[in-house]
Predict the structure of EamA family transporter.
Amino acid sequence: MIYVLASAICSVLVSVLLKLARRYGLDIGQAVAWNYVAAGALAALLLPAPLAPLRQAGAPWFALLGLGVLLPLIFLALGASVRHAGIVRSDAAQRLSLLLSLLAAFLLFGERLDATKALGCVLGLAALLGMVWRSERGHDANASARWLWPLVVFAGFGAIDVLFKRVAAAHVPLGTSLVAMFALALVVAFALAAWRAVRSGARFRLRNALGGLLLGLFNFGNILFYLRAHRALPQHPALVFASMNLGVVVLGALTGVLLFREQLSRINLAGLGLALLAIALLAWA
């Protein structure tokens, strides 16, 4: 289980870096672009990535192009969510996006819906509502951002997982698909960063590159350790899945509350508990 713990820690560290970005004057857009330099290079070096499957007639280029666009955009949305709503809500919303993956599995991939999965989905939706519930009163300009960005993260990561399933269904090796989508995401992310630089005069700085490379290290570490966990426990995929998602939610909550003093209402705490229960139910199902 050490690989699961390492993967969960890397996932939370990504959120921590995004949380600290503004404090240390990092441009998140530039950091996200450099993140894909590190993640793509590590994927090419450490995972088998034959290019032949991409030249076949049935290569899932539509899904790969969708991933290349969505990955940098959702990374920017995650950064905004962490900044406005905090690590606790953002990590929970990211993990609850599995509900959209399950919905796609029922509608697009022919998976059967049983009572346990249905209960897990209902609890997951209730958890999402509880996590993004805001009790602020008045005319706080950031109030809407505290629930809007976690919902964007929820929808974006759900869409990414569905596209990833499309790529997997085309039998493209994982290393190949990761290198392809990271390369496409790199082009999109740098195009966005260049557009922002021209529009606002933001300059490319070394500290943004260094921060982005560190971000890419943790981003890829999350993927690599998760894959190694599945290889170490090939007979227990549900255990790995549940441990990973529950671990990220719990570690994210502890980090947000203890390290960054994030405030959670009773409804938010109830939503967090429902998220843990929903993930456990869906993994058991």
